[in-house]
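Project standup — Tuesday

K.O.: blocked on the structure for the chain from last sprint. Re-posting the sequence here as requested.
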Amino acid sequence: MVAAAVAADDVLYLDVGDPERRDRQAPVMLDAITDTRTGEFISTDELVERLAGTNILFIGEEHTSIDFHRVQAHLIRALHESGRQVLIALEMFPYTQQKELDRWTRGQYEEAEFLKSADWYRYWGYHWDYYADIFRYARDNRIRMFGVNAPRKVIKAVRTEGFEDLSEEDLEHIPTTVDTDSPEHRRVYLAYFEDGDELHTELPPEQLDGMVRAQATWDAVMGWNSLQALRRHGGPNAIVVVLIGAGHAVYGVGSQRQIEPRFDGGIAALVPVSVTDTDGDPVTSVQASYADFIWGVPGSTDPVYPMLGVSLAGALGRAPNYIIQVDEDSPAAAAGLEVGDQLVAVNGAPVSDPASLRWSMGDRRWGDSVEVELRRDEETIRADVLLRRDSNEEPSGED
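H.V.: unblocked you, prediction finished:
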């Protein structure tokens, strides 16, 4: 066992998941892959060999960590070059966008055209360049990609209304069985909420229950659609590599738990782990049940690509471009943007909702500046926002 002094609610050290591994820890080392069943450090080639009996591999990600995405790209390449039939399943897209993904992997789109036609920044809130190498490799090698998410309105309806009041149309988008009653799943989900996260930690019980129910449904939808991609398009040696947020993959209580009763093939999870935490302290181990394989990556830093540092109301409000949160120490905060401001334009490009804000930031880099136009009460305000990272190097929030 690897000793570590950790908080009881630290998501890396929960005594949940596989009973054979939940009571011990596995070592973490930079650029090393750990098989948590044995505690061994292994090479990429050895990992590929140990995945020989795996048909569905969940690779958990931190969406704004370029090192997590490099792990995903490296393993996809290694599996493909080993002779496996690789299929890539994507949290980034709902399955209703499959036609656009098929056109991409057939080489029928230029990049800019694909982003617009597939509506990348409407369906996904993170910079394209985090994922571009994976998409390019899939296109160049004719590796099929599958959207496995559900339309957002369906998950929202599950959260706010429950299953009983869903329309027939909404029910068509989710599996017939969704397990929402796992105490371990709930514990892992709540462990991701940080102290001071007022948007979540102060919710009344019924709203929190709705969020857990929605998370379980989200897990089930993505697991089920990944399984369908395998069944419909996979050959004898196929492996579906599922690119998915780490919260859906860790401890086997997310998407894996939802599909295991329906599938007798091999399922595994690999999750990269930063070797230092957000305070700069070393991370030398994790609970062995955290994932089947872990991959040590450099410590958390600011996102590679700039974010303004505001959250817009979007579908939550009548005015989608109203600012509902300004991240502390963000470029927006430094420029004086406030909750309640209406974000009208960025560099002259109209902002009507979160997706249009993401588009306007797509070609920006740290060190640039953007001009924003705001409505505050009855006044129009223009301000230059300098895209500079916080000197304390704490991760920024979402746009």
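K.O.: great, moving the ticket to review. The chain has two domains: 11-297, 310-386. The first helix runs from residue 44 to 50.
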